[in-house]
Amino acid sequence: MVSGAVTESQVEQACEDSREQLTVYQAARADFEEAALEYEAALNEVARLEAKQGRIQASVESHTETLGLVQTQLEEQAVQMYMMGGMNNPGIIFSASSVDEVITTSEFLNSATLGGQKSINDLIAAKGELNRFQVDLEATHEELKTAEELALDIVNRQENAMNAQQEAYSKLSDRCKQLTAQREREIEEARARARQRAAGSVQVGDFNCPFTKGHTSFIDSWGFPRSGGRTHKGTDMFAVRGEPMYAVQAGTATTSSNSLGGLTVHLRANSGFTYYYAHLDRYAFSGSKSVAQGETIGYNGNSGNASGTSPHLHFEIRPSGSGPVNPYPTVKAACY
Question: Do 98 and 1 share a structural domain?
């Protein structure tokens, strides 16, 4: 470890024998970050269209019900007119194939009372509204299909960039890895201190990366919009399915599950912090147990509402007695 701050020239010298792979690594990392941002936007578009589709579907169902009520009223009126002799040709009632055929005949229209005419107008209006909503529903369905295909394409780009980044990192010399990581850590720590002064975030103390260094990729997605008006309260750390994840500090780890997080682990560390791991593929144990720092507690996946996305760990840091704080500065310093 180099004492004091690592300079860019020191990194360049250390990576002289890995210059090509360092360039590939940096380019792949930039590609991943770009794809990750695009994927966030695609997810939001899918969520918007799903909500729109739900609203239109509700309108279709409501107007279908209204149409049914109006048709029932007109059926009853047609029967009453027949029973009271108000129609010169009652055979229309029995020969018609539908209520529409009855109420659109000149015989019925001429015989209808003022109230009947209103019901006919209501039926025409209800049919027009229902047709409009059905057209909107079909158009929105096609928009949603296109948005989902785009999201899937971005997922593939994101995974390819992540794999390229990790492959290039594995080929860097040990000295290059060491000084690159130290410089990036020092830069991020300086930025974190500035953010802490501005936002009052926290220092967690001795902290391990949840994954093996070089085996994960992520961006600062704190505060990004989520479905239902929520905002993102963690860092999504992407890695291959089944990649082991570790206790970032010693403490008590407890497995659980829920519809959003899927398979989850709450790590209540001896430091007083709680760490939340979500979307696991499987656990390393079941129930609660004391764990050492660096001990395997689960394996990467996409359970819960992450189904269909690239496997990743949703990771949160929760100081004692308060809600989540942005984990990005902490995990970036530990993992890069």
Answer: yes
